[in-house]
Specification:
It is found in: Secreted. This protein is an alpha+beta fold. Helices cover 18% and strands 41% of the residues. It has an eight-stranded antiparallel barrel. The chain starts with a helix and ends in a 10-residue tail after the last strand. It binds 2-acetamido-2-deoxy-beta-D-glucopyranose (NAG). 2-acetamido-2-deoxy-beta-D-glucopyranose binds next to strand 3.
Length: 186
């Protein structure tokens, strides 16, 4: 038991390093009431994110579309080393009673990761949170501030961060995403 526990920790260290580990289980934030999936679809730009791992791509955006089978088609793109890169994924509502609790997977071999819409007005901003418990001992989480435009007023970003904090989500290491020069040719 002890040995397998150590093994699990060793295997997880690269994952943990790249992310923001916190002791204890995941927080249980409130999510957007009466979430309207249809209105959430479309193009969202990444304004800020947690964790503050060294940033790779810039101009990160995600385009959500409803598929006919009521799953969500997800296309994320970024510019990395002067090249536009896209990855495709699938989203689902994991719990019909909590439609703002989506799950997204970017590979057939990976399980759905939580993708919870904590708050959105559908037309300006969306706050997204993803947290995974590890052995109930600690958790790793991601958080994003998304917007329909490539930038947001500082006051809006501060208010968004405050919402995370009120939900016991630590966003001290949240970093702004680079959205400059994105509409030019590569
Ligand atoms: C988003 O995806 C839909 C469906 O694939 C497509 O019609 C639309 O052009 C895409 N929008 C952007 C901005 O990529």
């Amino acid at each position: 038991m002890k040995h397998s526990f150590v093994l699990v920790l060793v295997l997880l260290i690269p994952v943990i390093r790249a992310q923001v580990p916190h002791w204890g289980p995941c927080p249980d934030p409130a999510v957007q009431p009466a979430f309207n999936l249809k209105q959430f679809m479309g193009r969202w730009f990444e304004i800020a994110k947690l964790p503050a791992q060294f940033e790779k791509g810039r101009c990160i955006e995600t385009n959500f579309t409803l598929s006919t089978d009521s799953s969500i088609h997800v296309v994320s793109s970024e510019i990395l080393n002067g090249e536009l890169r896209k990855i495709q994924g699938t989203g689902v509502i994991e719990d019909m009673k909590n439609p703002a609790k989506l799950g997204i997977s970017f590979s057939y071999v990976l399980p759905y990761s939580p993708y919870w819409i904590l708050s959105t007005d559908y037309v300006n901003t969306a706050l997204v949170y993803s947290c995974t418990d590890i052995l109930r001992l600690f958790h790793v989480d991601f958080a994003w501030i998304l917007a329909r435009t490539r930038s947001l007023p500082d006051a809006t970003i501060q208010k968004a961060k405050q919402t995370f904090v009120e939900n016991n989500i630590d966003v001290i290491r949240m970093i702004p995403s680079r959205q400059l020069g994105c509409d030019k040719n590569l």
